[in-house]
Write a structure and sequence with these properties.
By secondary structure, the protein is of the alpha+beta class. The chain has 8 helices and 17 strands. The strands form 3 sheets. Strands 7, 8, 9, 10, 11, 12, 13, 14 and 15 form a 9-stranded mixed sheet that branches. Strands 2-1-6-5-3-4 form a 6-stranded antiparallel sheet. Strands 16-17 form a two-stranded antiparallel ribbon. β8 and β9 form a beta hairpin. The longest helix has 15 residues.
Length: 304
């Protein structure tokens, strides 16, 4: 079954999808995006993802490409047309097509919208959880507004490539003072010897991950304590456990940082419990056939 993409008002074959060469996303990375997990055919945490998209657009003064009420329907339709039961849906909005000038284009220039979806194998993700992943650290070299989910991801690309070349699966950006910020496509966590979950505050310097936010609620349900504070690479290496979170990984155990094993070098029990609690709660979400989505606005309503 060929994949289908939504491009500026049209559903087209993925292989034939095109954008203009002067789209500002191509010329300047002048755009934002969101990636949502699809589980059992339904988009997980969609309201939170769309709220973050709205914030990113506002921060960059990019107009909505369609009305806020229409976008959820488009996301669901792309998922449906691609027959995605488990996978992800990607939405990207750029400032639109205009002559290549650094300043914003003329008023009335329409922003551009692309939506794609693809399947994923839950069994493959579960297999990776069994062994955990390895992480390397890289110096922070990104722009200051990483709280905006911008398409300008070249530093992340280079960091991810360094991880791959080192036989790792993720890279953690580290401040000049040695404090871990976040991963190339994930938030970074550790669990202290006392069983406290630690992750950097999201007010500035990292992206406020949607899965990160939901894990806060899951942890509260499990009675786990969370501290929002910075932690060093040295503290991470000495931690009881470490893990990353994102829409595609949920809570993925980290077993090695820069070649140093975390604890016994195997996935930690607290991380696995947190992940399982997230998955269990997600399974309880029942489809609302009238809307083609979830019958709850937020997954977290199940845990409060």
């Amino acid at each position: 079954m060929p994949r289908i993409a939504y491009v500026n008002g049209r559903y087209v074959a993925h292989a034939q999808a095109r954008v203009h060469i002067e789209d500002r996303g191509y010329q300047f990375a002048d755009g934002v995006y969101e990636v949502c997990e699809v589980a059992r055919g339904f988009i997980v945490d969609m309201p939170r993802h769309l709220a973050r998209l709205k914030r990113s657009l506002k921060e960059l003064s990019i107009a909505w490409p369609v009305s806020e009420g229409v976008l959820p329907m488009l996301l669901r339709e792309v998922v449906r047309r691609n027959h995605v039961v488990n996978g992800l849906v990607y939405v990207q909005v750029t400032r639109g097509v205009a002559s290549r000038e650094f300043v914003f284009p003329a008023a009335g220039t329409r922003s551009a919208l692309v939506i794609t979806a693809r399947k994923a194998d839950p069994a493959a993700a579960a297999k990776r959880v069994e062994t955990g992943i390895k992480v390397v650290t890289v110096p922070e070299n990104r722009w200051d507004r990483v709280d905006i989910k911008s398409t300008g991801l070249l530093p992340n690309v280079l960091a991810k490539q360094k991880a791959k070349e080192a036989g790792a699966q993720e890279a953690w950006f580290v401040d000049i003072d040695g404090t871990v910020k976040e991963g190339g496509s994930s938030n970074a966590w550790i669990i202290t010897r006392d069983g406290v979950l630690v992750t950097r505050p999201a007010e500035h310097g990292i992206l406020r991950g949607i899965t990160r936010t939901t894990l806060f609620d899951v942890a509260a349900k499990l009675g786990l304590k969370i501290e929002e504070r910075g932690f060093s690479v040295a503290e991470a290496k000495a931690a009881r456990e470490a893990f990353i979170s994102s829409a595609t990984t949920i809570a993925m155990p980290v077993v090695e940082i820069d070649g140093a094993p975390i604890a016994n070098g195997h996935p930690g029990s607290m991380t696995l419990s947190l992940r399982q609690a997230f998955l269990t709660l997600r399974k309880k979400v029942q489809p609302d056939n009238r809307k083609g989505g979830m019958n709850l606005n937020y997954l977290v309503l199940l845990v409060v």
